[in-house]
Amino acid sequence: IINYVYMSRICGNFAAINIIMYMKKLLISCLLLIGMNAGAQTLPTYLDETKPVEQRIDDVLSRMTLDEKIAVIHAQSKFSAAGVPRLGIPDLWTDDGPHGIRPNTLWDKWRDAGQTNDSCVAFPALTCLAATWNPALAGDYGVSLGEEARYRSKDVVLGPGMNIYRSPIGGRNFEYLGEDPFLASRMVVPYIQGIQSTGTAACAKHFALNNEEAFRKRYNVVVSDRALHEIYLPAFKAAVEEGKVWAVMCAYNLYNNQPCCANDVLVNKILKGDWKFDGVAMTDWGVHTTTDDAVKYGMDMEFGTHTDGLAKGKDNAYEYYYLARPYKEGILSGKYSMKDLDEKVRRVLRLHFRTTMNRHRAYGFMCSEAHYDVARKIGEEGIVLLQNKRSLLPLNANAKRILVVGENAIKPMTVGGGSSSLKVQREVSPLDGLKARLGDKVQIDYARGYVGDTIVSYSGYRFNTDLRDNRSAEELKREAIEKAKGADYVIFVGGLNKCDGQDAEGYDRKGLELPYGQDELIEALAAVNKNMVYVNVSGNAVAMPWHAKVPAIVQAWFLGSEAGNALAAVLAGDANPSGKLPFTMPAKLEDVGAHALNTYPGTWRKDKKIIDREYKEGLYVGYRWVDHAKTTPLFAFGYGLSYTQFKIANLRADKTTMTRDGKITFTVDVTNTGRRAGAEVVQLYIHDKESSLERPYKELKGFDKVYLQPGETRQVNITIDVKALSFYNDKTQSWTAEDGEFVALVGNGTNNLKNSLKFRLQ
Questions:
Q1: CA–CA distance, 633 with 100 (Å, rounded to integer)
Q2: Distances in whole angstroms, Cα of residue 4 to Cα of each of 17, 41, 77
Q3: What residues does 691 pair with on adjacent strands?
Q4: Is residue 385 predicted with pLDDT exceeding 90?
Q5: Active-site positions?
């Protein structure tokens, strides 16, 4: 079997490798059963599930050779690391998330392996999940993703992503959870718990400060300690301390002049020291560091050192990773200690006992209708109604003809964007979703309007939709305008896509503007049809210079497999929109702190190898900058409309003074004053009136989503403790809450906080 696996790898026969891997797992299972049936006296401690895990790990460590220890801490293929076959410990298989289980790739290459049984359900991008403001849905998301991973025998899902939305041009923002550390924290914990409930490890990424993509392997972040701890680390801290995440992927960029994957402050001091993280700190794929730094500064598992695994002149290039042969040779020469190696191996073994060695984890299942239902529910709750003049939406049931315009109405959006690209079992386009929902009663016409991207394959995977169109831009525009003149509605489905330079890994956008001449086309269509709906498909904010001329605007995100069905349900009124923006939509790029202060892209050093990116705006990210600089956003953080109306009133608290070891509960009455059932998100922000250090005017510290029937009133309670009043004191390097007066601000968005109440901490 070993010889056959080796020859299959050399020949690139992935199908044969896959068969052998299953045979290997079967053999390991048989060996385990034989061992367990041999009698209690002969059962090795590490196989005895009645023993504590740490005792079992000690037993495995005592049995492993140096070569076996080195083997488990680095990759053996693009997405796997070796187990210990001699001891019955299987290989560890990772897979890209965070929006679905990525198709299998070739052993040594990024390209699609060409299998036919590795399709998946694509769930909405994490920006959409954050826009639901519904932690319960985050848990459902995680369980569904974990079940799909289990069915495909994946042990680690490389997600969730939780870096902060610092700039709207960040190419990977669509994979993250918005601009606010509290919102991101509350959404990421149930997501992680959901995945890991299936026996699959979540891997929180990218730790830390990976807020833009351009020069991501070459920029060194210069940020204050306060901003680091108050803005950029809380979601990771919650993932570790509350979510109990089993793995953390470190970012490409540098912090404090060290790569994040081997960083004394981030990994050794904060992650493993302050937060007591007991899992694996793994690298992103293709890191820059050295063996010395990898050994000393916290790297446990290495998944990439710029090789395809078949480097010229080397029989197995994975052996030349920093934590492979160079590490072994350093140990044999006495340069490195076995103590450090054993600590890394111990963490990897702990991950194995939580995943591959857990005989009780579920088998999982894939592409189930339950998973599609979760994907659709997240999409429906995450879609944000930004503007609805004349109550144009939901669509009038008496409409006879609707014109759909825009490339994004037909373009697959589950493919592309980098490592989160998926191979889906099905993806319902916005055009097909509208036809399925309205087609029997309404004539649905379509006009392309513009041509932006016509690729038909990505990373070796070829998809079915042919987007090629030989007509000129003027011909496409003219067709759309002529068809719009006689339509009851024009629904323009535009925005961004997952091509390089838009919402995509490895690239940042050049600005806020819509690509492909969409702004001109939208203006022209609005001039000939007053009933226009603009649907923005993106994971980022975009400029909307025409927003006053378009009565209805919908933020639709990348919605995954059920995109068309979720969007059609909201537009038709089957689902009442309840999404709230997880980031601020600025009117112009200069209204963002990072750009107002000219901090992007940064300053190149003299040797042109490293760029220093200084976060001059400090704490003032997103709505915090809006308050600080007194700008007016296009659409505010936490904002989102509904087809019904809500009243939030009668704010009160169970006490007027909170002690340091106590809590305070705020209560409001929420009434659905409209004619439709719907959901409202009650948001609590805290303003500190007396601080010794500068603080943002307000900060989100609590929220709750409440579902109400027409005329129904319900009390919403939000409880906080002293943590909600604390700031990070960079002088003492500790969290501090100072006695004094605070104000609770409650409403349904940072632009609508009409309820306020003073209280004291003492």
A1: 33
A2: 8, 36, 16
A3: none
A4: yes
A5: 284
Distance CA 179, CA 176 (A): 9
Give CA–CA dist 17/720, Å, rounded: 53
Report how far residue 222's alpha carbon sits from residue 612's, in angstroms, rounded to the nearest whole number: 7
The dihedrals phi and psi of 518, each to the nearest 5 degrees, come to: -65, -35
Q: Could you say which DSSP state residue 124 is in?
A: P
Reading the block at residue 23, the tokens are: 């045979």
Strand partners, 688: 742
> Which pTM was predicted?
0.94
d(CA 698, CA 743): 9
Q: What is the pLDDT of residue 288?
A: 82
Angle between the N-to-C axes of helices 181-196 and 234-241, in degrees from 0 to 180, rounded to the nearest 10: 30
**CA pair distance 581, 542, nearest whole angstrom:** 13
Three-class SS of residue 193?
A: helix
Q: Which residue has the tokens 């004394």?
A: 264
Sheet containing 552-555: give its strands across. Answer: 384-388, 552-555, 532-537, 489-495, 401-405, 443-447
CA atoms within 13 A on the CB side of 609: 4
Closest CA to 282 of 98, 504, 81, 107: 81
Helices (H) and strands (E) in the chain, counts: 19, 29
The pair of structure tokens assigned to 229 is 């701890």
Closest CA to 583 of 282, 211, 278, 259: 211
Q: Residue ranges of the alpha helices (H) in 222-311?
A: 225-227, 234-241, 291-296
- The encoded tokens of residue 424 equal 């889906």
pLDDT digits (tens, 9 = 90+) for 448-486: 999 999 888 888 888 888 899 999 999 999 999 999 999
552-555 and 532-537 beta bridge pairing: parallel
Which ranges in 244-368 belong to alpha helices (H)? 291-296, 325-332, 338-354
Q: How far is CA 568 from CA 129, 130, 401, 731, in A?
A: 18, 21, 15, 53
Laid out side by side, the sheet with 678-688 consists of: 657-658, 755-761, 740-747, 678-688, 699-708
Residue 732: C-alpha distances to residues 225, 255, 555, 729 (Å): 11, 21, 43, 6
Neighbour tally for 264: CB within 10 Å: 14
